[in-house]
Amino acid sequence: MSELTPFLFDGLPVRGMLVRLTDAWFEVLQRRQELGPFPPEVRVLLGEMTAAAVLMQAHIKFNGALVIQVFGDGPVKLAVAEVQPDLAFRATAKVVGEVPPGARLEALLNVHGQGRCAITLDPLDKRPGQQPYQGVVPLHGDQREPLQQVSQVLEHYMLQSEQLDTRLVLAADDRVAAGLLIQRLPVSGGGNLAGRRNEDELGLSEDYKRIALLAATLTRDELLTLPADQVLHRLFWQEQVTRFAPRAPRFACRCSSERVRGMLRTLGREESDSLIAERGLVEVGCDFCGRHYRFDAVDVGEMFTPQANQPPASEAVQ
Known about the structure:
By secondary structure, the chain is of the alpha+beta class.
């Protein structure tokens, strides 16, 4: 079963989370088979993004959707991972070119340095006129060197957005998407930047550095194959670690007939009628779950007929 395990280092300003997506990640890939499987390099990219998105959602405890998007000028035009507050997630990508074997982040999305990563927080309880919060970072470091791993991009984002040092280790294959997050906690009673100075003065930042170095020794194979208790023992057997109750991430898609109808209304009556004339129906497929929605001429007519002008249900049945 897919599982996210939070933990805390006793007496130290450091916390962590470990996620292993197994059955839920397999379901994502199985559903994609109907639309055509992604190349192996894209499956790894999406798996790492999904594991990271679950970790970040659990970390911030946000009442809304957390969405990670990477987009750029390579064969992968867009990759998306979305996680809800209950850790229900979905993921997909748009691939329009040939993916080189063994391609990493630069070759997939950042061929000419135009790649970007956007993290969006979309509240469930939005106030009227409230817009989602979005932060965008380039797919390169402070010295403009191209970043080759999703983990490096997100570490850079976390440092910029929260001023908190973060270490991410991510891995994915066709069976498992997994990730380890280690983060330095702010010192209570002051802001993060002030806390950083206080920690340096007290020597507490050395605790985070030590634990982050230990986390960096975790190999890809270990992350993909070992259960949570073995990973934590292997890395932190000399530390006092308190584990909290695990949570269960799951695959779930938010697509629905009503959402698709809303999209068609946005496109307009003329566009929908042209599809009816050309194909006899309007068919829309969900890139996340593979479900197909079909609307005939009667359905389209109802979409664009004001509610007040539609016949009562009994007359419609007759």
